[in-house]
Design a protein that fits this description.
Blueprint lengths: L3 H15 L2 E2 L14 H15 L6 E2 L4 E3 L5 H13 L4 E3 L5 H4 L2 H6 L7 E3 L5 E3 L1 H11 L10 H30 L6 H21 L13 H14 L5 H4 L3 H11 L80 H10 L8 H8 L5 E8 L8 H13 L8 E10 L2 E11 L4 H4 L8 E6 L4 H12 L3 E2 L2 E9 L1
Parallel strand pairs: 3-4
Antiparallel strand pairs: 1-2, 3-5, 5-6, 7-9, 7-10, 8-9, 8-12, 11-12
Bound molecules: glutathione.
Amino acid sequence: MYSLREYFTLCKKLRHMWNQLEAPHHAIAAQPLSPTYTLDILTFAILSLLLHNPKNIIIKMAPVLTGFVGNSRVRRVRAAAALAGVELSYDDSFSMKSEWKTAEFLEKNPFGFLPTLELEDGTVLRESGAIAEYVAELGPNSTLIPSDPKQKAEVHAWQCTADQELFIPGSFLNGMLSGKYPYTKPVFQAIQDKITSRLSVIDNILVKKTFLVGERITLADIFVATALVNLFTSNYDALLRAKIPNVVRFVETVINHPKLLDIFANTEFVEKAPTPAQPAKEQKPKADKPKAEAAPKAPKAPKKKEADEEEEEPLVPAEPKVKNPLDDLPKSAFNLEEWKRQYSNLDTRGAGGSLEWFYEKFDHEGFSIWRVDFKYNEELTQVFMSSNQVGGFFNRLEASRKYLFGSVGVLGKANDSIISGAVIIRGQDIEPVINVAPDWESYSYKKLDLSNEDDKKFFEGAMAWDLVVDGKEWADGKNFK
Ligand SMILES: N[C@@H](CCC(=O)N[C@@H](CS)C(=O)NCC(=O)O)C(=O)O
């Protein structure tokens, strides 16, 4: 039962819905609604009947763009929509990779990449470039893709340049700076030089032009400008930008377009590129030379990858065949491998949980526990990217697998998060265990004392993945086992 007042509110809501309805099988759909109260109630009754048979009703919905709002690939689609005058609704509710790689989502989008665009009929479009083109073509009178085939091809060529020459290599540089990929100066420099040489060509082209193709903004400008915003806000600093003034002017023109202001709000170009994590000094094997005849046949080197083949994460460095001084530490009754099994198989907290097992068995002399914090949290953006970064760090710790257990997470939300957690290591000194990862110095380490209540709470939170630091809650995590 509804009170009259509730009826009235419902009628107002329904009247709003009415405007969005198409009820092709019902002549009544064409009737305008009366503003009078009695008619509203009647209308409500009729609409209620209709609503109980949803097959009769089609609600017009804007295509749904799923992705992270500030992401460059999402931005190019949003920019195309804004300029083409196409309404999109946004779903940026995914915060972690695990959430969006569900079987249900993968069924609609087999590679599991974002963004996607879901159309009214359930079709799911993937690839930001293709989505942007689709959106651009939808727009009434959109000139984002010229109708002349030659100009159309020119626009398409710029889309390819933006992706292959600017966006992808630029993202790789970001990955090296953040520690996702091992930083190697000559590789970093070579990629950056390649980008610079492309940009000097573009700078020349833009001496006499405002936009890349024709006299009006097209998809070419959107793609190149979004790729450059990504570059200029992360690693392509003021010194480098000074050499390409026309490109900078071009980017500023695009991002200050009145219809794009929202999309590029708070864009700040970096003054100085961040300092990358330094690689660890190479460990020279000190082992005795194997006797020639007894030496086992060296395993065949893996087939060399093509130079342009992309790696999601860097290859795990091979375990050096040197005796690790950690093996010379006095024997310990605490079995780290057994802990890893207990942790994997039992609930962490509570009676019979893995923490209970841990407290019974832990050897404070043979092992120690450390808090780990990423030093450059202000650079973190999307939670899943930070989580990837932790995964990459753990991959690079492979050579210390025997001496280390880790539970590190991303706490907080997009653009306001930290990476923090705890590791259990062999011995009392963190450096020999952790310095096998070239980016180990991007993190700070503090020994935890389990007799201190705060330290114990932190340790348990990191193990149980319910750690909260400064109000930031655990969003995603990785274990090193
Ligand atoms: N070429 C694709 C790339 C999409 C892509 O890599 N998206 C990232 C988010 S920005 C992603 O889904 N990463 C998850 C993964 O690598 O599994 C596009 O432009 O849409």
